[in-house]
């Protein structure tokens, strides 16, 4: 919704590529430290001209509002925002970041003035839903043309639970369902009689277990590692009938596009049965040392159609190594918490920043944070890569998070709906869906 009604300097198209938005073009200096944007000749929704000064103010306001979030940590790479001539704005970085435009295209950086954005769509409330209509070409900074309305249709957006959305789709009352996740996948009808198709995005991100409790057995790093070793990632999601899903034992994916590091998966020299036996040995040893009959842990998971399936698989794996896993009560903070989060851009920093101690999301590694911060100010690409690799290794050795694999994102798209393409970011702009088929 925000991306549809409030553009930033740049945006993402339907295939996930960076495209012009409020900035009609830009250049990057040879050292990669400065991005210079030329704003389009356009106005804010209140008729005020778009200038470098008021865009700078709106950007700084957004960045300030994002402090304390992981996206705010990502944006700490910005050194300065400068208003230059009337429609030129410069953003200086602390170090080169090839993925900076991807970061700056995030919906949270859509700009507003007096609460209103610049399109490309206009939103009105309607019976618990939002109706989106295309803004005029003039409002979008384009030449005015006659009969432009005939090229677009309204888009009605409603938020609802996955089961209800899938039922509406099957009944022909919805043309598209977005933001499906692994735990809601069971409601998607993949059979031959389905009125639409399940479309899977090849996304990157985090899918695993955040460790929230540093007491009891989880106080010991070797036991946290034992739990990570005892999960059978190859069979964990079999009941979901997912083809092509690849498990992982690392925080940063080894196949992340453009990644310079050559890190490999952990425990490759140890067959799974041997890993599980070692994990069980550690649990037995802890119980003996602490005169404890059981090791009991709770896990917090969202209430979804597939929750029981995933919980049963995890519970079985934990039981194999001598750990009793229980579901945390709704709203309670478990010893463990399921993390299901999409990457915003293809860089180690995004993954590392998710566990920054300032976010207070669970266990963290101050040492890893220091390394990640050092990488921000390092202009030598090789040294920067080494610092980020060291930061990930520090997190892995601290055992603050148990990686499982990539997240899952699916959509239901009815045949004949144009403007949708699977992409690495799981973001699907609404404006292309408003275009009438030719």
UniProtKB/TrEMBL annotation:
Its main location: periplasm. Pfam families: SBP_bac_5 (PF00496). GO terms for cellular component: ATP-binding cassette (ABC) transporter complex; outer membrane-bounded periplasmic space. Gene3D superfamilies: Dipeptide-binding Protein, Domain 3, Periplasmic binding protein-like II. Residues 17-330 form the Solute-binding protein family domain. It comes from the Bacteria. It is found in: Periplasm. The keyword GTP-binding does not apply. Coiled coil: none annotated. GO terms for molecular function: peptide transmembrane transporter activity. One of its GO terms (biological process) is peptide transport. InterPro entries: Peptide/Ni-bd, SBP_5, SBP_5_dom. The keyword Signal applies. Keywords: Signal, Transport. Belongs to the bacterial solute-binding protein 5 family. This is Peptide ABC transporter substrate-binding protein. It comes from Pontixanthobacter aquaemixtae. The lineage of its organism: Bacteria, Pseudomonadati, Pseudomonadota, Alphaproteobacteria, Sphingomonadales.
């Amino acid at each position: 919704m925000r991306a549809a009604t409030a553009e930033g300097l740049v945006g993402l198209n339907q295939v996930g590529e960076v495209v012009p938005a409020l900035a009609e073009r830009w250049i990057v200096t040879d050292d990669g430290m400065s991005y210079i944007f030329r704003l389009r000749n356009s106005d804010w929704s209140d008729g005020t001209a778009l200038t470098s000064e008021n865009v700078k103010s709106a950007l700084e306001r957004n960045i300030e509002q994002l402090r304390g979030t992981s996206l705010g940590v990502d944006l700490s790479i910005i050194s300065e925002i400068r208003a230059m001539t009337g429609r030129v704005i410069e953003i200086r970085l602390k170090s080169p970041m090839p993925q900076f435009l991807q970061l700056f295209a995030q919906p949270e950086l859509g700009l507003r003035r007096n609460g209103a954005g610049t399109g490309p769509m206009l939103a009105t409330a309607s019976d618990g839903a939002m109706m989106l209509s295309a803004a005029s070409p003039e409002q979008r900074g384009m030449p005015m043309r006659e009969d432009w309305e005939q090229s677009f249709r309204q888009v009605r957006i409603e938020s609802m639970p996955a089961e209800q959305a899938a039922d509406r789709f099957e009944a022909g009352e919805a043309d598209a369902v977005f933001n499906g996740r692994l735990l809601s996948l069971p409601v998607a009808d993949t059979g031959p009689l389905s009125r639409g198709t399940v479309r899977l995005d090849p996304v990157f991100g985090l899918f695993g277990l955040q460790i929230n409790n540093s007491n009891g057995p989880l106080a010991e790093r070797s036991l946290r590692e034992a739990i990570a070793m005892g999960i059978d990632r190859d069979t964990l999601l079999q009941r979901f009938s997912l083809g092509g899903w690849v498990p992982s034992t690392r925080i940063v994916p080894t196949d992340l596009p453009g990644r310079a590091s050559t890190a490999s998966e952990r425990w490759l020299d140890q067959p799974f049965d041997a890993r599980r036996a070692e994990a069980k040995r550690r649990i037995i040893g802890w119980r003996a040392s602490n005169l404890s009959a059981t090791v009991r842990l709770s896990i917090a998971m969202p209430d979804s159609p597939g929750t029981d399936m995933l919980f049963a698989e995890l519970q079985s794996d934990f039981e194999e190594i001598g750990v009793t896993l229980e579901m945390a009560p709704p709203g309670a903070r478990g010893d463990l918490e399921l993390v299901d989060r999409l990457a915003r851009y293809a860089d180690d920093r995004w993954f590392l920043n998710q566990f920054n101690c300032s976010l207070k999301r669970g266990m963290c590694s101050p040492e890893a944070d220091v390394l990640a911060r050092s990488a921000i100010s390092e202009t030598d690409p090789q040294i920067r890569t080494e610092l980020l690799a060291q930061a990930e290794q520090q997190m892995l050795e601290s055992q603050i998070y148990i990686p499982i694999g990539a997240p899952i994102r699916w959509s239901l798209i009815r045949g004949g709906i144009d403007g949708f393409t699977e992409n690495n970011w799981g973001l699907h702009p609404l404006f292309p869906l408003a275009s009438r088929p030719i």
